[in-house]
Amino acid sequence: MDKSTFEERKVINGSMHGSLKHDSAHKHVTGAADYIDDLPEPAGLLHGALGLSDRAHAEIAGIDLSAVKAYPGVVWVFTAKDIPGLNDTSSNGMHDEPLLADAKVEFHGQPIFAVIAETRDAARRAARLAKIDYRDLPHWSDIDGALANGAPLVYEPMTLKRGEPETEMANAKHRIKAQMRIGGQEHFYLESHIAMAIPGEDDEVAVWSSTQHPSEIQHIVGHVLNIPSNAVTVNVRRMGGGFGGKETQGNQFAALAAVAAKKLGRAIKFRPDRDEDMAATGKRHDFLVDYEIGFDDDGRIHAVDATYAARCGFSSDLSGPVTDRALFHADSSYFYPHVHLVSKPLKTHTVSNTAFRGFGGPQGMVGGERFIEEIAYALGKDPLEVRRANFYGQPGSGRTLTPYHQEVEDNIIHRIVDELEEASDYQARRSAIMEFNRSSRFIRKGIALTPVKFGISFTMTAFNQAGALVHIYQDGSIHLNHGGTEMGQGLYTKVAQVLADSFQVDIDRVKITATTTGKVPNTSATAASSGSDLNGMAAFDAARQIKERLIAFAVEKWSVAAEEIQFLPNRVRVGEMEIAFPDFIRQAYFARVQLSAAGFYKTPKIHWDRKAGRGTPFYYFSYGAACSEVSIDTLTGEYLVDRTDILHDVGRSLNPAIDIGQVEGAFVQGMGWLTTEELWWDNKGRLRTHAPSTYKIPLASDRPKIFKVRLAEWSENAEATIGRSKAVGEPPFMLSISVLEALSMAVASVADYRVCPRLDAPATPERVLMAVERLKGM
Which family does it belong to (predicted)? Predict the structure, then answer.
């Protein structure tokens, strides 16, 4: 192999579709990665703390802050009346989420005032000295309480309907009517919320925020200060995790810091501790699903009627889109000939729930898999057999239309499941497990193979756009900036790979820079698994513009045809000669070629009519499947996840190493949601699971003892995405449903698989034990 061939192979492997390490991986493990709290503190920096309510629902009858103001080191204490602009941080224009509560509080832990002091400790201690008089009002903190009290909805409900479910349900040979509870989840990012604001001249303010949505922070700060967006610059280099919890929830901390910074003319930092962060910020929505399903002797679904009620908290936040997406995924991977689905986003006196990885899709999908489970136990069939009987078909089969009237045109779930069934040896292991359960007195095992079909795109069509800014400097080095944010998922690395591939240069020639609203405006949140799709294509567009100018320059300078110009690894071929990339760029600069471009991308084909419940909200679907095996102790309800095999579809992966990491992490996080992570409010509306001591995320020791993850390397996106890849952030989260289903089978063995255990989530050891005891009596 000659030197040029080796160099060419090196660049191709080191750019798009190559398994490159995360650009900050070495910094993460050595502690060298700078987060906001690691930045050098500006001279005169002051610290902020929140004054939180200790009532779930009450009028504020009186407030005495004299002791707070008198505490040593306190510089300023402010309330709602001190906000110069709009006292609102709502992300959807409904103006139902005050920055600071004024006349009334609507959840325990709601911010009422803020303290600014010389030290963080002084601010926190002073905040606890307030004397507030309340007139208590009726409150409810869960879905049952909301339903019993006729609670209002925080957002207009959505209905999806196809066929004639009203009449066709009665025509089904078998019918089951039941209910399922699905718990919420705390994001538990490693870095809690944090914001630092530095005042500038005139009306300007610069904000450093741990946020997935810098443009929204920019807008909110502008509204709160009553200044235009062009006066606010928001910067984000990286977050220590986000998972959706930093899509809207960072608004209040950034806005409070900005208000104080402009008032006092000094830099301000807000960093709540873990307890305050968990009490004052939103979580995954928990759901109560009431369902009726009709089916035939073969287990094929004929009709579905289901209502998805959600605990949304005191304000709307993102509850409308979250409950919408739950309905979009209530079909899981299955065709429902006749279907009626309704969302019910209920107001509760708890912190307003928000985005979380999957954004309602996991809750909808868990409900859909419960339908399959009900049918399987009612008919005495293997749930996998029932799943296959109900899968969406191929185009022309008459079984491709979703409840929202989008055709499933890219269906590969059959192949995914078939390959995983064989690779995991599912059938033989299931037979062995059933044999084991017949003779085992206390330990029972279960196994389940579950599919994933997840729609990719923001369901709000306008959010499906992105921008990127690319500069090439005279020495051939490249500067990249785009609207996506890095929360550990490797987005910066992937987009840099796109750029390196476009110009055929080594990845280390591309400088990744912090996301800032001062470079790329009007960006969408890094959410909905769209970060690589949108920002990768925007960067590709910027590269295309610059390359077109460079080709035109070369055509004119060397009198060659455009077809004779080729970008090769670290060099450019022009006719018969080759020029090193830096030399080529330098010559273009002296010829006054513009070496900068703003790229833009908007997702094609998508449209959505929410009122009609019809459209094409998703550009494509991502698929996957997981097979999990568990063991439970029927005396205690404790269990182990013995083995998990995963086959997941990411199209033609932009970076297989990063994508496999995303699949593994999503699965374990989803497993935590469905097994150990339980949110609990007491009868006073206080969140009692507000710290690691009371809220149990999975540990490394909780992961499957045997954990095999493969990407479907044969898959390639049928749509023109960047590099024909598919999204990877959210879809693999739902692979964890296989653990819940496997636990259900283990419990069902107690009653010889005759009864659906109806195991609610999270399936904590207590719930598993109660289900075992319940089935023993059947």
Answer: Belongs to the xanthine dehydrogenase family.
**Rg of the chain's alpha carbons, rounded to an integer?**
27
301-311 and 287-295: which strand pairing? Answer: antiparallel
| SS3 call for 416 | helix
pLDDT band at 6 (very low <50, low <70, confident <90, very high): very low
Q: 15 and 507 in contact (C-beta within 8 Å)?
A: yes
Question: Rounded distance, CA 446 to CA 434, Å?
Answer: 8
**Residues 431-459 as b or e (16 or more Cβ within 10 Å = b):** eebbeebeeeeeebbbbbbbbbbbbbbbb
Residue 730 is among the residues annotated as catalytic for this protein: yes
Is residue 311 a contact partner of residue 349, using CB atoms and an 8 Å limit? no
Strand order in the sheet with 620-633: 443-456, 620-633, 639-648, 706-711
In this prediction, residues 453-458 reach a mean pLDDT of 98
- The residues, ordered by sequence, that sit 6+ positions from 197 with a Cβ below 8 Å of its Cβ are 205, 206, 207, 208, 221, 254, 257, 258, 260, 261, 262, 267, 268, 269
CA-CA-CA-CA dihedral for 493, 495, 497, 502, to nearest 10:
-160
3-state secondary structure of 419: helix
CB 158 within 8 A of CB 319: no
Alpha helix positions (H), 734-778: 737-748, 765-776
Contact (CB, 8 A) for 242 and 273: no
**Could you tell me where the DSSP H helices lie in 297-360?**
319-328
**Residue 630 belongs to what H/E stretch?**
strand 620-633
Q: Which two tokens stand for residue 465?
A: 């756009």
Rounded to whole angstroms, the Cα distance separating 495 from 508 reads 13
The H-or-E segment that residue 515 falls in is: strand 515-516
**What's residue 2's pLDDT?**
38
Region 687-708: mean pLDDT is: 96
Q: How far apart are CA 94 and CA 88, in angstroms?
A: 9
Q: Which member of 730, 741, 766, 773 is catalytic? A: 730
Q: Which residue has the tokens 């110069």?
A: 84
| Residue 445 and residue 437 in contact, taking contact as beta carbons nearer than 8 Å | yes
| Farthest-apart Cα atoms in the chain, separation | 88
- Which residues, listed in sequence order, are joined to residue 545 by a DSSP beta bridge? none
Q: Give residue 453's Cα distance to chain centre.
A: 16
Query: Which domains are seen in the chain, by residue range?
Result: 24-33+465-602 (3.30.365.10), 398-461+603-777 (3.30.365.10)
Predicted pLDDT of residue 251? 98
Q: 319-348 pLDDT, tens per residue?
A: 999 999 999 999 999 999 999 999 999 999
Model confidence at 118: pLDDT above 80: yes
Q: Where are the alpha helices (DSSP H) in 591-684?
A: 656-675
Please write the tens of the pLDDT for every residue from 8-51. 434 444 579 999 999 999 999 999 999 999 999 999 999 999 99
